[in-house]
């Protein structure tokens, strides 16, 4: 908004950047926040820790990277590649196969299914929505994904990791919907992967809090004002539209507001809950080839659930923990009255755990689109460990506010540390 010439005032009731997606530092502050005594022993210098409250990675070719490039926030942030992507099957984790070579050696599939999956991958890589010659007699707008799997003779296990670890769906509803979106999702995963070969994910050095600070710096460069530790006492309305906000006796006049659900509780509705568990470890996760960072997806069918369980791990390699320490964060949508029991399979993958911090957050969505009262409300962060659903929300808000779409055509590759590593 600032780059496009809008006068922006950003008011935050917190005394830190990022709200729900803040990176907590020092480590002692994390213990205080969760009312846990500790840490029991010195864990390096406290400022070496930057622990995210909401775990998210960036798809290397995904929407958030394109937004960062579009706004030029990348000038303020350094990124590093995430080492690996894994999927859970029958109590063990396996490397997600995304290339022809990996498909042929993966232990997720039998010999004949590997070859069928390879053919499916080749189809996805070569697929072009606007070129019928690449469709192989598949109507992408009418044929369901279940029918596509059947065409390539792929079994339930391959369907599971393709839908959940590659296409990043949270449940199996997509199976009976037109296959176009799923094909594009798998293709996005593949295109993100081939940028750096090891995994499709990037992560900012010093944690996700750097994203918020980067946007704040850019906004300030274009005349935006950022005020921390500033409460919102009242949103002022006239004739059904917002005209300003009152804070500590002062009024800031405005024509539009963007806010999260906590600022307008009467204009949102609860749609569920998410449990997140931050785990401090002294070791990498088993069976990940000693990765210092990775994502693990536990598909719903593997643990008799309606939604997936996500694990993302980072470490000192991303400047978020002391040397020899790791931060793994588990997240999933709550389905029962005992949320902690729901993430037990993920906890078992991480053992032994030095310390864990558990939070359960309500999920809210706005009751209206905001075009009438000009109050545009974001959705709560979901359980996924990527930013694609969040970016869909951002683009929707931008379009409703401005009537325009964020155009990402002809974008360049993010200028990240991962690029530099790739060059060497």
UniProtKB/TrEMBL annotation:
The keyword Cytoplasm applies. Keywords: Cytoplasm, GTPase activation. It comes from the Eukaryota. GO terms for biological process: protein transport; small GTPase-mediated signal transduction; vesicle-mediated transport. One of its GO terms (molecular function) is GTPase activator activity. InterPro entries: FAD/NAD-bd_sf, GDP_dissociation_inhibitor, RabGDI. Gene3D superfamilies: FAD/NAD(P)-binding domain, Guanine Nucleotide Dissociation Inhibitor, domain 1, Guanine Nucleotide Dissociation Inhibitor, domain 2. Its main location: cytoplasm. GO terms for cellular component: Golgi apparatus. It is found in: Cytoplasm; Golgi apparatus, trans-Golgi network. Regulates the GDP/GTP exchange reaction of most RAB proteins by inhibiting the dissociation of GDP from them, and the subsequent binding of GTP. Belongs to the Rab GDI family. This is Rab GDP dissociation inhibitor. It comes from Pyxicephalus adspersus.
